[in-house]
């Protein structure tokens, strides 16, 4: 059955296999996540018990080839991210950090030994990874990172800190980017290494059913075998970030679609002045505007996904999707909350939870301003960053 907001029959643009994947992920979210998300959000809990089920669905590193990964297309990955974020941004974030960041870093830049040892375990959910790039004083400008790795004999010594790192307190490995005398390099850091510590960042008003942490490294000793041999310079982590940003393009529309559906259902049954709210012109206008933006956002995500699969996607196009879809999704969620009146602040209803989460989603993996300037440089040929 097509989604209520699908005015253009976008479903017809997907293959039977893509629609079957969508339905499997949607069923998982409906069965395992929706009945509990209000409680998890209220008490700031990420349900680690569902990680094996996500692995069974092939969601962890699903767009990677080999090493126990599902080898799905970029479009299929995007479809799954949309369904996960319709449940909650924290659910999509887990899959993004694990697959698009930590696993992608190993898949793109690791040695064959590292890939063989870690990727099958991560795809199965037995090993969780995190991705340490952002620092307390280096967010949008990672070139200002202070974390350093110094050569020491045939190994390395790591010192510094990272902030806003998803999954840090439950991860067995951390992909850590550090400045060295040879430039930025990437390392696989066991989280049980002496001198490694992770603490939760709390309390939060957003992404409450998700894990964000601060990592600290105090003379953490690493071997040369812990370094990602193919990672040199900031281009390496940015390649992973683009994978995560791509997933957000789809995911944000999942949060928007869910908020729209809640508002549509609520206004159809809520009686005011002798008729349902959905019978009023202002309500219908709001629903129409929301549906139009969801459709445009989904078409944008699909177009970018097809180009990614075809190998024709350019770097700035990720910014088009991330900037537009996050911006429109948060507006849709806010409008949906308003249509619920006072009931909209209750966790029984999802729009305000989605809107709060999207405050984080539009900030991480590049703020609105960063993506605006990336596109500004594309249009003018002039960089405004420096």
TrEMBL record:
Domain Acyl-CoA dehydrogenase/oxidase N-terminal, chain residue ranges per copy: 15-125
Taxonomy, superkingdom: Bacteria
Pathway as given in its UniProt record: Amino-acid metabolism; tryptophan metabolism; Amino-acid metabolism; lysine degradation
All residue ranges annotated as the Acyl-CoA oxidase/dehydrogenase middle domain in the record: 130-220
Keyword terms of this UniProt record: FAD, Flavoprotein, Oxidoreductase, Transit peptide
GO biological process: fatty acid beta-oxidation using acyl-CoA dehydrogenase; fatty-acyl-CoA biosynthetic process
Reaction(s) this enzyme catalyzes, per UniProt: glutaryl-CoA + oxidized [electron-transfer flavoprotein] + 2 H(+) = (2E)-butenoyl-CoA + reduced [electron-transfer flavoprotein] + CO2
The protein's name: glutaryl-CoA dehydrogenase (ETF)
Taxon lineage: Bacteria, Bacillati, Actinomycetota, Actinomycetes, Micrococcales
């Amino acid at each position: 059955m097509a989604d209520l907001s699908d005015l253009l029959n976008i479903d017809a643009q997907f293959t039977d296999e893509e629609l079957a994947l969508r339905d499997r992920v949607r069923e998982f979210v409906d069965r395992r996540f929706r009945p509990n998300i209000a409680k998890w959000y209220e008490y700031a809990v990420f349900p680690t018990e569902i990680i094996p089920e996500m692995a069974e669905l092939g969601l962890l590193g699903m767009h990677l080839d080999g090493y126990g990964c599902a080898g799905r297309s970029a479009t299929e990955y995007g479809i799954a991210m949309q369904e996960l974020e319709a449940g909650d941004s924290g659910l999509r974030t887990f899959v993004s950090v694990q697959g698009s960041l930590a696993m992608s870093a190993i898949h793109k830049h690791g040695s064959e030994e590292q890939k063989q040892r870690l990727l099958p375990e991560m795809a199965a959910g037995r090993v969780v990874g995190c991705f340490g790039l952002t620092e307390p004083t280096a967010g949008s400008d990672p070139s200002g990172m202070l974390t350093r790795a110094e050569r020491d004999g045939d190994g390395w010594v790591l010192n510094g800190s990272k902030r806003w790192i998803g999954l840090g307190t439950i991860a067995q490995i951390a992909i850590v980017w550090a400045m060295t005398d040879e430039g930025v390099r990437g390392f696989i850091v066991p989280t049980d290494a002496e001198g490694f510590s992770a603490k939760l960042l709390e309390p939060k008003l957003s992404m409450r059913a998700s894990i964000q942490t601060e990592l600290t490294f105090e003379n953490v000793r690493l071997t040369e075998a812990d370094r990602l041999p193919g990672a040199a310079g900031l281009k390496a982590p940015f390649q992973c970030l683009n994978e995560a940003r791509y997933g957000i393009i789809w995911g944000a529309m999942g949060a928007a679609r869910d908020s729209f559906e809640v508002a549509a259902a609520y206004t159809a049954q809520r009686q005011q002045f002798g008729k349902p709210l959905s019978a009023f012109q202002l309500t219908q206008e709001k629903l129409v505007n929301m549906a139009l933006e969801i459709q445009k956002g989904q078409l944008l995500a699909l177009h970018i996904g097809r180009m990614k699969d075809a190998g024709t996607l350019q770097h700035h196009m990720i910014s088009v999707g991330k900037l537009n879809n996050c911006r429109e999704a948060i507006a849709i969620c806010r409008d949906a909350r308003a249509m619920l009146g006072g009931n909209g602040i209750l966790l029984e209803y999802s729009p305000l939870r989605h809107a709060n989460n999207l405050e984080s989603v539009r900030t991480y993996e590049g703020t609105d301003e960063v993506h605006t300037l990336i596109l500004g440089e594309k249009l003018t040929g002039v960089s405004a960053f420096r």
